[in-house]
Amino acid sequence: MTESARPRKRIILGAFLSGVNHHTVWSAPEAGSQIAFSSFEHLARTAERGKFDFFFLAEGLALRERSGRVFDQDVVGRPDTLPVLAALAAVTEHLGLVGTLNTTFNEPYELARQLGSLDHLSGGRAGWNVVTSFDAFTGQNFRRGGYLHRDDRYVRADEFLAATHRLWDAWGEEAIVADKESGRFLRRPEDGTELGAFSFQGDQFDISGHFTTPRPPQGRPVILQAGVSPGGRDFAVRRSDAIFSPYRHLDEAQEFYRDIQRRAALAGRAPGEVKILPSASFVLGDTEADAVERHRHIARQQVTGQTAQILLEAVWNRDLSGYDPDGPLPDIDPDPEGPPVIQGRARLHQDAHQTVAEWRALAEAHDYSLRELALHVFGRTDFVGTPRQVADLIDAFVQNDGSDGFILGSHLTPTGLDEFVDRVVPLLQERGALRTEYTGTTLRDNLGL
């Protein structure tokens, strides 16, 4: 079916509060606090005013380091995810509340209770971005340390999800309906089975007992995951409701979209059951030229010379502070086997030598400096233009199956999303690509799951 012949897809939108990466221009005079609840509240209320599907909060479990010292250009001091989302449940009515929580350094019973409780407190609006970790640096903050081998991270994550599903299902669907008024129903009437009884045995977990939290309103909170490797993609289509896509250009995004849908079908999932959501940012101007100039200015605030060096150090695994950010790429080879120069940053490029070779070819073809290359390869999907141009670009990307929507972030906390809601949202609503009112009562309803 051609794009013109099929129904228009409704765009899914999430609001992303940056804070653990270089996209946040925390030094801007108009930037607000990364810790004060007022910042989280402002962004969540703005997203709900724009009829967004959910608020998304990332999380880092360790302060990142460079050569043994904490990054001096990173935003640090972020509160814990779950208390923030629980507080936001009290000041929003429809917006989904999605948090990043790690399967390597948590336990199924603990997270199942916390997420189930958030789903109850919010009336069915909880979501979980499932992430893994294998590095010893982050593991130093936890009892288990860095024991988990890279190859085992999805093994544990897959079993973790299976265990949490068992826990959420421990109270049968009929039990929560019967119990919803009193909260005191102790046995299922049909067979006398104790409510909440569970048992789960696997290679990673051997747990049993009684689950204390009644079945969540959604049955299970919405699950999001970022899987790019073949193993990550297979895990995502088995366990996730939505997948973060790292692809910024339509052709590669379409290829990823098709591959995920193919894998989902092989896993027995229905068409459209797994949503694809890249992160993105936007820059608006009264004219296209204004927007382009503003984007150039913001990008250079985000990627300073020092930031560019550090971003490339994560791949070279060498100290690049002696190289001019406005000069050519380093003339030395990467050292992927050496002691880590950068600690606490996810490894996005598995083959350092291949990546550096590709970057050198790219820099030669476009005459990029070190900093210009960093601006090119580490940027998000940026929609730049007038409000109508940005609305056109977002709609075209989704309708042509580059994604099912976007998780939008801004360089400015917490007010950066305001102008998108004020100037772009009405244009998307006008063409029928974005809801004008919430119709569902849960996050699953709003996402069409």
TrEMBL record:
Chain residues that bind FMN: 100, 154, 229
GO molecular function, one term: oxidoreductase activity, acting on paired donors, with incorporation or reduction of molecular oxygen
Top EC class for this record: oxidoreductase
EC number(s) stated in the UniProt entry for this protein: 1.14.-.-
InterPro entries in UniProt: Diverse_substr_monoxygenases (IPR051260), Luciferase-like_dom (IPR011251), Luciferase-like_sf (IPR036661), NTA_MOA (IPR016215)
Keywords assigned: Flavoprotein, FMN, Monooxygenase, Oxidoreductase
Domain Luciferase-like: 31-399
NCBIfam families on file: FMN_nitrolo
Membership in a protein family: Belongs to the NtaA/SnaA/DszA monooxygenase family.
Protein name: NtaA/DmoA family FMN-dependent monooxygenase
Organism: Streptomyces sedi
Lineage of the species this protein comes from: Bacteria, Bacillati, Actinomycetota, Actinomycetes, Kitasatosporales
